[in-house]
Amino acid sequence: MPALPGVHFAKSVRNHRVSPVVDAIPIVAHFGSEVPEMMEATPSSLVRKAADSYRLTRFVMLRLLGAVYAAAFLAAAKQILPLIGSHGLLPVNLFLDQVQNALGSPVAGFIRVPSLFWFVHSDVALQTAAWIGLALSCVVVAGYANAILMAALWALYMSFVHVG
Predict the structure, then answer these.
(1) From CA 130, how far away is CA 85, in angstroms rounded?
(2) Containing structural domain, residue 62
């Protein structure tokens, strides 16, 4: 039988067959004159590697999320007054009054239907919130996303969802 590095052949006494026995010594191939060094992995280096591996995913996902927010706030800016404005299909002030009457107080209404429009619900406030949301989402698309900005976008968007 041909000789392989790290493999020895042992004969079985009963069957007189030859079976390979592999040594537990790993063979490491490397190129160049220097032997590669083993580096100890520290938690900070592992976190850094994980962060580097998701950089492209984070880059794409945040910009796409910003684009979705931009489309939603642009649609809201164009359609909010005919829908829930003071002369719209279901004016926001009538809706909030009905929620307040059904639940007993404005605080209970805010807890059940959280929205920034419990504080101010004029036509100007609706339009301003929509345009601010569009501006903030364009900032996210440009690449300046952080947790505070994303929380502000979420709060603005959910304010429209809960009253409209």
Answers:
(1) 12
(2) 54-163
pLDDT per residue, tens digit, the chain (164 aa), is 555 555 444 454 455 555 455 444 444 555 555 655 655 656 666 667 766 778 888 889 999 999 999 999 999 999 999 999 999 999 999 999 999 999 999 999 999 999 999 999 899 999 999 999 999 999 999 999 899 999 999 999 999 999 98
Question: What is the total count of domains within the chain?
Answer: 1
Residue 110, CA atoms < 13 Å, CB-side half-sphere: 8
Query: Does residue 37 lie within any of the structural domains?
Result: no
Q: Which among 72, 78, 69, 80 is positioned nearest to 136, based on CA atoms?
A: 69
Q: Is residue 26 part of a domain?
A: no
